[in-house]
Design goal:
Elements: H1 3-8, H2 12-41, H3 55-64, E1 70-72, H4 78-83, H5 89-97, E2 136-137, H6 147-163, E3 181-186, H7 193-205, E4 209-214, E5 218-219, E6 222-223, H8 233-236, E7 250-255, H9 259-276, E8 280-285, H10 305-314, H11 316-326, H12 332-377, H13 382-393, H14 400-413, H15 420-439, E9 466-468, H16 469-483, E10 487-491, H17 507-511, E11 516-518, H18 523-534, E12 539-543, H19 554-561, H20 564-567, E13 577-582, H21 595-601, E14 606-608, H22 613-623, E15 630-635, E16 642-644, E17 660-663, E18 668-672, H23 676-689, E19 694-698, E20 701-703, H24 710-718, E21 721-724, H25 732-743, E22 755-757, H26 767-774, H27 778-792
Parallel strand pairs: 1-2, 1-3, 3-4, 4-8, 7-8, 10-11, 10-12, 12-13, 13-15, 14-15, 18-19, 18-21, 21-22
Antiparallel strand pairs: 5-6, 9-16, 14-20, 17-19
Length: about 800
């Protein structure tokens, strides 16, 4: 018997009980929104953004949502989360207060503001749970439409699990690809390019995705007439409607206050997406936003009297109540009783959440006050310390900031007194205890992090012949795809021609177009495909054709992928590998090296910069044994350069965070990475002719950076340092120098000023001359090193100019 038939066979009393329970969830959610707003306005919470006005369609969506399904949503889906049993009243308020304990705020341990929801895909050790036995929500982000690219990947994973041989046994992630990815978005956010890019991609890929648009006619205060052509998203997307001649979407429109029609619409959408793997768009219109956009303002400022009157009448909860009364589902007394009980439950849940949040801090407050009183007794600054203590004692609802500010200010007063040690120890211990609540899990803390994989060197036959670098990377991918059936690669020109540099030549023919596939020119959703599939247990490699094109996807990388483990306190992960190529091609749009921009935008993702294809292949092999995301930037001018072909393809591993000294020297340490190293090596040969012996260090990875602090060991030997980079001035070179000087304390060993040599501030001009005059050349490096040596030894190295 199908689920639809089961529902049809429900008795009236069973159906009535289900409807009453739905109403209870809706009214409970509404009360949470109303009381939550008051908590913000009284100062207990910093900011509030709530789901009031969207309760009833979310109930309908929850009914169609099955175990194994994933949500990728909009920050107003609290009713849905309550309906699938993943959000309690107390958890709702714990999130609003920013409770930094995952047991109290399982959505993010206080790292995201309220309204941002997630379930736990991982256990406390970072191991996958069985995702098919639970209802799943990918962790929300605030950037509008930022949830869309990931949604595409979550849906595509079902397509992969249904069609690729070798992954069907991964039953903790999928059961024959029957899972649906459910997206939600506000009507105004459909104006974002990410929405349209994702809608188009999902239609092309034909993935099981149900996309709900909550349409209340406004985007904050801006009416739909300024947002959407024809003020109607389903109207302008009609061309996506599938028919007998062409694949596309099923498009459904339904009023947001019509409970029975909403239930029917979502049941139909679920069946289409789940069984046929066809994307569905549900335009839920005539919705309201009873309290306006957020606690930062009131909607009475921008809605006229007629609109406010209409919203009061067509509020979805009010309309549901009206429908229940008209259809004898309940009496007014029954519903009033539910309303009253919901208010009590919400108030009690709010009080419990606040007590759980503030009471531990009050205990810490008492502990510090006792310590300060003892310190004051033996201090010359007793009067001033007592004033600080009294001020701290007067705070009835302290936060941890209050405690540390007081303790650190008092510490200044007793720095030369006997009380210093006890207070200093308290501050240190307290910070060590509390800081991880706010800073843990930027990177994986499991036993599968990048540091868990040991180096395995490439092996070679005695008579190994030289081969093009592209052949090394291609043959290694062949070994990877054979070894790991869950790996797949996709991007512009990846499939049919085997990528623009033939690093995937023949792979599509061998492994099929589900595992080695072309993608449209849409970098953000290529990243999104990878994020979503990685969140569902696959090991995708998302290819961005050139490093410059990464800028199209940098927002998704920064706001979503890089923060995923952090914003879930280690309870979700997406070990996506991003493959691209860059450096030294002659052209303004294909030869940029915006590394400073990248590394400072994507903390949380490892950034690997191999100097050749063997090193790059080793990075891929390493990453596939870890659970962390990474960006691998292959040298664009290295595919035709000759390298030896390793015999242990797929097995050798380049260590991450470890530098390599590629030339020993005694006079100066030269630090660089990627294609620029070949220019550095040429300059070093010429410097030897002048009697200058340079040591050359290949960084290999920018994030993480030199975890063994090997560069400072080199500087201790040479006493001079030059960082060479083809990024703009102050870009990656500043990051590198800061690490060497501040983190490794190399300044202690310097006899000359540490310097950087970078590209010019502009984009590289076209052609060979453009490259020469835009980026560091061998002559630039030679002369910069020579000038450093000239300053130190002017008689031995007279000035060139």
């Amino acid at each position: 018997m199908t689920e639809t038939e089961t529902k049809k066979s429900l008795s009236f009393e069973d159906f009535r009980a289900e409807v009453l329970n739905d109403y209870k969830i809706a009214i409970t959610s509404r009360e949470c929104s109303l009381l939550g707003r008051r908590e913000v306005l009284t100062g207990k919470a910093k900011f509030g953004i709530f789901g009031d006005g969207k309760e009833v369609p979310q109930l309908a969506m929850a009914k169609a949502f099955k175990n194994g399904d994933f949500r990728s949503g909009y920050y107003r889906d609290q009713t849905f989360m309550m309906a699938i049993g993943q959000l309690t009243i107390q958890q709702f308020f714990a999130g609003l207060y920013g409770h930094s304990d995952l047991e109290h705020d399982p959505m993010s341990a206080g790292r995201q503001m309220g309204g941002h929801f997630a379930t736990h895909s991982l256990d406390e050790n970072g191991n996958w749970k069985n995702l098919t036995q639970q209802k799943n929500s990918s962790a929300d982000i605030s950037p509008t439409a930022g949830q869309m690219p990931r949604l595409l990947g979550l849906a595509q994973a079902s397509k992969v699990y249904r069609n690729i041989t070798g992954v069907q046994n991964k039953t903790n992630f999928s059961i024959n690809g029957n899972e649906v990815a459910w997206g939600t978005i506000g009507n105004a956010s459909t104006s974002e390019g990410l929405f349209f890019e994702t809608i188009n991609a999902a239609g092309v890929l034909q993935v099981p995705m149900v996309m709900s648009v909550w349409d209340d006619d406004y985007g904050i205060s801006v009416h739909a007439r300024y947002q959407t052509t024809k003020e109607n998203i389903s109207e302008i997307l009609k061309g996506f409607q599938r028919d007998e001649n062409a694949k596309g979407y099923e498009i459904i429109t339904v009023k947001g206050w019509d409970y029975p029609e909403l239930v029917s619409a979502y049941e139909r959408a679920s069946e289409i997406a789940r069984n046929e793997h066809v994307p569905v768009l549900i335009h839920v219109y005539q919705l309201t936003q009873p309290q306006g956009h957020s606690t930062s303002g009131s909607h009475e400022r921008y809605k006229n009297a007629d609109r406010l009157s209409w919203e009061a009448e067509y509020d979805c909860v009010a309309q549901m109540r009206k429908w229940m009364l008209e259809n004898n589902m309940a009496t007014a007394e029954d519903l009033d009783a539910i309303d009253e009980q919901a208010k009590k439950d919400v108030l009690e849940g709010k009080k419990a959440a606040w007590s759980a949040y503030v009471n531990p801090i009050k205990e810490e407050q008492k502990e510090l006050i006792a310590l300060l009183n003892n310190v004051a007794l033996q201090s010359d600054n007793k009067v001033f310390i007592e004033k600080y203590t009294a001020d701290l004692s007067s705070i009835k609802e302290p936060i941890r900031k209050d405690l540390l500010i007081t303790a650190r200010k008092v510490l200044r007063m007793v720095v030369k007194e006997n009380g210093k040690n006890a207070l200093s120890q308290w501050v240190t211990a307290y910070t060590e205890k509390i800081q991880p609540k706010f800073s843990s899990h930027l990177y994986s803390q499991s036993d599968k992090n990048v540091y868990s994989v040991k180096e395995v060197k490439p092996q070679y036959d005695e008579n190994a012949e030289d081969a093009d670098g592209r052949m090394v990377i291609r043959n290694n991918f062949d070994a990877i795809f054979s070894k790991y059936p869950e790996t797949l690669i996709f991007g512009e020109d990846c499939g049919n021609i085997g990528d623009v540099n033939q690093g995937l030549e023949g792979m599509q023919d061998k492994y099929g177009d589900f595992r080695v596939c072309d993608a449209g020119i849409r970098e953000a959703t290529i990243l999104g495909q990878g994020i979503g599939m990685a969140m569902r247990g696959l090991r995708p490699i998302a290819e961005i054709q050139y490093l410059d094109y990464l800028l199209y996807a940098i927002q998704i990388m920064s706001d979503d992928l890089a923060t995923l483990q952090y914003r879930t306190a280690g309870r979700q992960k997406a070990p996506l590998i991003i493959r691209t190529r860059g450096h030294r091609l002659e052209g303004i749009w294909h030869s940029g090296s915006p590394m400073g921009m990248i590394i400072n935008a994507i903390r949380g993702i490892h950034v690997l910069v191999p100097r050749n294809m063997t090193k790059a292949a080793g990075f891929y092999n390493t990453l596939l044994e870890t659970d962390e995301p990474a960006l691998v930037i292959e040298c664009l001018n290295g595919y035709r350069l000759k390298e030896k072909m390793p015999t242990n393809l797929g097995e050798f591993k380049t260590p991450i965070g470890v530098v390599e000294t590629i030339k020993e020297g005694s006079d100066i340490t030269l630090v660089s990475y990627g294609s620029t190293l070949r220019v550095v090596e040429q300059a070093a040969k010429e410097l030897l002719e002048a009697g200058i012996d340079a040591e050359i260090i290949d960084i290999q990875s920018l994030l993480p950076f030199d975890i063994n602090h090997d560069i400072v060991k080199s500087v201790a030997k040479t006493n001079r340092l030059l960082v060479i980079d083809e990024d703009v001035p102050g870009g990656a070179s500043a990051f590198i120098l800061q690490n060497i000087l501040d983190e490794q304390n190399a300044y202690k060993h310097l006899d000359s000023k540490p310097e950087t040599l970078t590209a010019k501030a502009h984009r590289p001009s076209y052609g060979t001359d453009g490259d020469y005059f835009s980026k560091p050349s061998a002559e630039d490096i030679y002369e910069k090193v020579y000038s450093i040596m000239s300053e130190a030894k002017p008689n031995e190295y007279p000035e060139l100019y």
